[in-house]
């Protein structure tokens, strides 16, 4: 027998939307943790970063925003810069698109959704037919570790748990196409790009792999498979070989305890779970462990009515209601507010995302160096485009680490984009005749700048490293050096350290 408290804790450990600590365990536990369930879905309102004085978010319209239904177009500010700036590189992190639930609600029918692809089903996309046929040639690509055996398209007429849906494919074909449009005038990639210039990485789940391929197809239609290598990130934190960080685990556990305490103190939430359980004829803790919000969100996003059970037998019968859904979502939004106030999650996020940010920063620095005038670029070119196909448990800490705490929780097919730009060369000094080898006037390289975008909105000046940057005509963008010193040192100040090593291993003071 487990005590009620222990049962709660157990539920809590498997259901909160945070990460277990060891990278292998993350993979194994992934089914249990990628639920968008234990976590708040973020701030409301239309803008990514809402203006402060607005009223309480409406949990239902918030949920529709999370679905990211591809039925309208949104402004995308990727690729915008002052005139004559040169785009040097682009690094994108995406969250996978719409997926089938990871949990089912006992005693109810699973939502009837077809995960095979068909141009006769909505939503569809003009690229769908050619995409399906191109994926059929995926055997010609290079696949790291076991990725080659992951299906490259969703293809079950009754979706499997966690499977990407057609909506998810369309969301990412669309994302890829939006960025293709945004960058096509900037000559980011030459027509005959070389294998070195593109880096694609994904976790081992079919929904991330398929989302990455959908994005890539929208971005580079009919790309040459033989030039493509798809890399495998074992950890959902994309931390490669530097995942060990004991202090990160400690912050995570504290954060989970905070989240648990807030939830059990919410009497309206507890009453709602009890009501739902009574309707279905379940124990309250069985219902809670089934993470009903995950399945209900799927119903909502697909326009399906919430599940019902007949009267009689064990439960009182009836349907789960929108009002109950709204209570669970309201609590998730409260949790987000509390999470920001307490700050443990931010500390966790700093340590969780350092390895990814360090890699991002190093790539930018390398590309910036090789673009300096007079340098010979390496054969095959630098890596100018990176795609990381990830999960909510990757993107949420990324946003927090960047200081974008007010950003909405990552919706399906959310995207974070890092752009690197160089300003036009300036001419130094007076155009005097120089004695050296017939130089006319010595051009000095322009400076390098970073832009950060979230779902198409420019959030650069909301990040920790550029919030207080003094924008003016000669520096309308955020200098790359701000980002570099943030990643290499300044970001650790919230945990009273100056490096990752120190922050991860120092004894609690
Ligand atoms: C798109 O779909 C969502 C969810 O069904 C709906 O709330 C929204 O009004 C729709 N938008 C348009 C422009 O049709
Ligand atoms: C999907 O699966 C069916 C049955 O196995 C197969 O006939 C079909 O070719 C598959 N479609 C795709 C696009 O892989
Ligand atoms: C950070 O990046 C540098 C340069 O690429 C690399 O040498 C170093 O190992 C990285 N550190 C961590 C902890 O990832
Ligand atoms: C970090 O430093 C601040 C100010 O010096 C101090 O108030 C705080 O207790 C320190 N925190 C830790 C975890 O050592």
UniProtKB/TrEMBL annotation:
GO terms for biological process: chondroitin sulfate proteoglycan biosynthetic process; glycosaminoglycan biosynthetic process. It catalyses: 3-O-[beta-D-GlcA-(1->3)-beta-D-Gal-(1->3)-beta-D-Gal-(1->4)-beta-D-2-O-P-Xyl]-L-seryl-[protein] + H2O = 3-O-(beta-D-GlcA-(1->3)-beta-D-Gal-(1->3)-beta-D-Gal-(1->4)-beta-D-Xyl)-L-seryl-[protein] + phosphate. The keyword Hydrolase applies. One of its GO terms (molecular function) is phosphatase activity. It holds the Pfam family His_Phos_2. Residues 1-25 form the signal peptide. Belongs to the histidine acid phosphatase family. This is 2-phosphoxylose phosphatase 1. The lineage of its organism: Eukaryota, Metazoa, Chordata, Craniata, Vertebrata.
């Amino acid at each position: 027998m487990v005590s009620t408290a222990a049962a709660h804790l157990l539920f809590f450990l498997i259901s909160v939307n945070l990460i277990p600590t060891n990278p292998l365990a993350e993979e194994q536990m992934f089914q249990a943790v990628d639920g968008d369930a234990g976590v708040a879905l973020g701030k409301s309102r239309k803008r990514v970063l809402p203006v402060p004085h607005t009223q309480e978010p409406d949990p239902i319209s918030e949920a529709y925003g999370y679905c990211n239904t591809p039925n309208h177009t949104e402004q995308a500010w990727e690729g915008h810069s002052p005139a004559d700036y040169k785009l040097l590189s682009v690094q994108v992190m995406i969250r996978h698109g719409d997926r089938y639930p990871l949990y089912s609600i006992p005693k109810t029918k699973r939502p009837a959704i077809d995960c095979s692809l068909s141009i006769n089903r909505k939503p569809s996309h003009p690229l769908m037919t050619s995409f399906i046929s191109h994926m059929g040639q995926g055997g010609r690509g290079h696949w790291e570790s076991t990725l080659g055996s992951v299906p490259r398209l969703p293809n079950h007429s009754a979706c499997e748990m966690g499977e990407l849906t057609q909506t998810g494919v369309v969301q990412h074909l669309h994302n890829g196409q939006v960025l293709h449009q945004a960058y096509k005038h900037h000559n980011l990639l030459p027509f005959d790009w070389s294998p070195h210039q593109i880096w694609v990485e994904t976790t081992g789940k079919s929904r991330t792999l398929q989302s990455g391929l959908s994005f890539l197809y929208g971005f580079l239609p009919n790309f040459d498979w033989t030039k493509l290598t798809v890399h495998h990130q074992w950890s959902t934190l994309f931390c490669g070989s530097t995942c060990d960080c004991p202090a990160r685990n400690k912050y995570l556990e504290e954060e989970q305890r905070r989240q648990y305490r807030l939830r059990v103190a919410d009497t309206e939430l507890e009453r709602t779970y009890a009501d739902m359980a009574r309707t279905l004829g379940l124990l309250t803790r069985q219902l809670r462990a089934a993470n009903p919000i995950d399945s209900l969100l799927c119903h909502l996003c697909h326009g399906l009515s919430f599940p019902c059970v007949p009267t009689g037998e064990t439960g009182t019968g009836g349907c789960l209601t929108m009002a109950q859904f709204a209570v669970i979502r309201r609590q998730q939004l409260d949790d987000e507010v509390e999470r920001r106030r307490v700050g443990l999650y931010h500390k966790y996020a700093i340590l969780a995302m350092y390895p990814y940010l360090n890699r991002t920063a190093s790539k930018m620095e390398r590309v910036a160096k090789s673009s300096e005038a007079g340098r010979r670029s390496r054969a095959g070119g630098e890596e100018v485009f990176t795609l990381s196909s990830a999960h909510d448990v990757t993107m949420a800490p990324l946003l927090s680490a960047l200081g974008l705490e007010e950003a909405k929780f990552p919706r399906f097919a959310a995207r974070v984009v890092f752009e690197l730009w160089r300003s036009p060369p300036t001419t130094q000094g007076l155009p005097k005749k120089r004695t050296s080898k017939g130089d006319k006037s010595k051009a000095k390289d322009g400076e390098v700048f970073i832009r950060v975008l979230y779902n198409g909105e420019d959030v650069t000046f909301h990040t920790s490293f550029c919030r207080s940057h003094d924008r003016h005509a000669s520096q309308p963008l955020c200098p790359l050096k701000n980002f570099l010193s943030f990643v290499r040192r300044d970001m650790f100040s919230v945990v009273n350290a100056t490096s990752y090593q120190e922050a991860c291993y120092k004894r609690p003071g």
